[in-house]
């Protein structure tokens, strides 16, 4: 394929008419032998940035990928497109490994996916040495490159050793790719992988199709069920902090009639693999998981990611929520968030065995996440700003844009809370302090004599949820500290002094009750793409499901939903028209074209004559 141009390959192999964003520049740079670090959001087309240069350059492209599921999906999709691709990982028996290695050494592969652990073995490096000696190494692509960062959320020790590629094969171009990396992580990737001369390509981090929503936690199961009601039959992920909560939530969802599967490191390998395969290959499965699940999941039609617990950082949140809406269709990132999240995460950091510098960095990352949760500004604007990107206007597709929270002067409420903390010796958590402020005569309040304190009952104007919001925001603002050594007791920080003394005002946020308009906007956002015939789309979807089942691959490997919607909108009548549909290249047109055109033609009698003016290509 080395005589073709990048644009010709893009259209003929992958079925797309043009590159997006910086793709063309990245492809040209890498195909010309340059090194690159690419930061591009999930669904932005990172894979094409190395797949096309690998087809343009002599030899085979070696792709370092951290997860078996990702390798399998990528290879299945490439083979559907007519690309000679394979992988080497622990799922292969010895005979299959030998056959793949033979294909590699005899020039029968365009792309080979390999795990970092296997690549670093002498057996694999010796194979690469032979290819390099013959000039048959096209490039190295290091996917999920943020795994190199020790400060990151997906650290993989083997990634640090990948600097050997630079040392051993200095003439072979390398590209490191990730969807998530702040400035610190970018510097670490460049340094640890020996990419000092690499060009850095940073795409917009914006995922405009994802709606961001954070709700104050009061009854998380009821809240989750209400959210899922708007995504009936859709595939999604629900993240929980603990394995126990994963198991309990999955069982509860199944009892509510929602097909849910648990996934965490405590399950045996066979169960995890089976659940992951069901999620990838079946329609409408909800995966309830810890963060052990998700990195590298290539499923494009995940319609939502819900968090029942606070993630570790904004990078982790962005990475996890980015698994929704990879196909560009409307998706949602939804999270419940409560006071206990703040306490637990601060305790986790304080009690960890990490060094002082790492703890400082983790506290900074947590503070940034908490500030994002409590913002009254556009969430998208704040999220993009964290990654160094400026957005001037409000997005109109997050909860703070659709239902702006109220801001109120919380100075006096904060003073009451701080006074209660001081008068009780800074020895109690939020639950006891809220009872004190609201004047609840509990047994513990009486035993401790706290019903005689001046602060007893001074906060009766706020309900329990209101006070939890106040304490949560004081913690998020750094005015309070949850002391891990004192079982989470709340204590004042130095930053609290000006507010306590009335020297500075403190504005807090208060969420308005959700209006029905938000639900209506949600339904509008998730509507069928303009022009797509729903009946034809469902017929194509059923055909795709049969193909996927027969071939033992996920449905989206055959064709993405977006391609099916395009087919249902354009209604192609010939092979040439079929090749104009985004996502259908030459190989797919040859393999599936006759069947697709037959389905479209069979549905033609159901279409009114007047539709021909809308769809233009075919007159009825």
Question: Would you write up a description of this structure?
Answer:
By secondary structure, the chain is α/β, with parallel strands linked by helices. The protein has 4 domains: 6-202, P-loop containing nucleotide triphosphate hydrolases (Rossmann fold, 3-Layer(aba) Sandwich), CATH 3.40.50; 210-337 and 375-403, Rossmann fold (3-Layer(aba) Sandwich); 407-510, Winged helix-like DNA-binding domain superfamily/Winged helix DNA-binding domain (Arc Repressor Mutant, subunit A, Orthogonal Bundle); 534-615, HRDC domain (DNA polymerase, domain 1). It has a 7-stranded parallel beta sheet with strand order 3-4-2-5-6-1-7, with helices on both faces. It has a 6-stranded parallel beta sheet with strand order 8-13-12-9-11-10, sandwiched between helices. Strand 15 (480-483) and strand 16 form a beta hairpin. It is globular and about 85 Å long. The protein starts with 5 loop residues before the first helix and ends in a 5-residue tail after the last helix.
């Amino acid at each position: 394929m080395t005589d073709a141009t990048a644009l010709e390959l893009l259209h003929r192999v992958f079925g797309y008419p043009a590159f997006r964003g910086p793709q063309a520049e990245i492809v040209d740079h890498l195909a010309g032998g340059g090194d690159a670090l690419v930061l591009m959001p999930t669904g932005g087309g990172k894979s094409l940035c190395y797949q096309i240069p690998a087809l343009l350059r002599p030899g085979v492209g070696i792709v370092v990928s951290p997860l078996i599921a990702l390798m399998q999906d990528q290879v299945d999709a490439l083979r559907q497109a007519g690309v000679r691709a394979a992988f080497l990982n622990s799922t292969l028996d010895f005979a299959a490994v030998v056959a793949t290695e033979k294909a590699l050494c005899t020039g029968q592969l365009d792309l080979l996916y390999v795990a970092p652990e296997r690549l670093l073995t002498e057996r694999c490096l010796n194979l690469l040495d032979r290819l390099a000696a013959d000039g048959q190494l096209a490039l190295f692509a290091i996917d999920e490159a943020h795994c190199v960062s020790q400060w990151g959320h997906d650290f993989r020790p083997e990634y640090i050793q990948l600097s050997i590629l630079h040392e051993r094969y200095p003439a072979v171009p390398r590209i490191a790719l990730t969807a998530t990396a702040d400035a610190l992580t970018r510097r670490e990737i460049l340094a640890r992988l020996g990419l000092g001369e690499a060009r850095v390509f940073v795409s917009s981090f914006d995922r405009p199709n994802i709606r961001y929503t954070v709700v104050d936690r009061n009854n998380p199961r009821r809240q989750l069920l209400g959210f899922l009601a708007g995504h009936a039959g859709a595939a999604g992920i629900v993240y929980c902090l603990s394995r126990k909560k994963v198991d309990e939530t999955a069982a509860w969802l199944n009892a509510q009639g929602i097909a849910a599967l648990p996934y965490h490191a405590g399950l045996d390998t066979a169960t995890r693999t089976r659940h992951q395969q069901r999620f990838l290959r079946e329609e409408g499965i909800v995966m309830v998981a810890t963060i052990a699940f998700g990195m590298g999941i290539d499923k494009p039609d995940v319609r939502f990611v819900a968090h029942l617990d606070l993630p570790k950082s904004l990078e982790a949140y962005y990475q996890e929520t980015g698994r929704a809406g990879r196909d560009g269709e409307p998706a949602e990132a939804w999270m419940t968030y409560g006071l206990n999240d703040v306490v637990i995460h601060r305790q986790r950091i304080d009690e960890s065995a990490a060094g002082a510098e790492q703890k400082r960095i983790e506290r900074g990352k947590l503070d940034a996440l908490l500030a994002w949760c409590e913002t009254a500004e556009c969430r998208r604007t704040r999220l993009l700003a964290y990654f160094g990107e400026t957005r001037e206007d409000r997005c109109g597709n997050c909860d703070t844009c659709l239902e702006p929270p109220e801001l109120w002067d919380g100075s006096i409420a904060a003073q009451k809370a701080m006074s209660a903390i001081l008068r009780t010796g800074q020895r109690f958590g939020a639950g006891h302090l809220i009872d004190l402020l609201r004047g609840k005569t509990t047994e513990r309040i009486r035993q401790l004599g706290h019903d005689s304190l001046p602060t007893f009952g001074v906060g009766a104007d706020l309900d329990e949820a209101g006070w939890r919001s106040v304490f949560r925001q004081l913690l998020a603002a750094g005015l309070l500290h949850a002391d891990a050594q004192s079982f989470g007791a709340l204590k004042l920080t130095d930053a609290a002094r000006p507010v306590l003394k009335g020297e500075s005002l403190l504005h807090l946020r208060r969420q308005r009750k959700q209006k029905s308009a938000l639900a209506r906007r949600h339904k509008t956002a998730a509507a069928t793409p303009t022009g797509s015939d729903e009946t034809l789309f469902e017929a194509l979807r059923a055909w795709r499901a049969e193909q996927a089942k027969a071939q033992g691959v996920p449905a989206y490997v055959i064709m993405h939903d977006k391609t099916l919607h395009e087919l249902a909108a354009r209604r192609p009548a010939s092979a040439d028209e079929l090749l104009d549909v985004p996502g259908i290249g030459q190989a797919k047109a040859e393999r599936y074209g006759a069947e697709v055109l037959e389905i479209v033609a069979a549905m033609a009698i159901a279409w009114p004559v007047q539709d021909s003016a809308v769809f233009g290509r075919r007159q009825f």
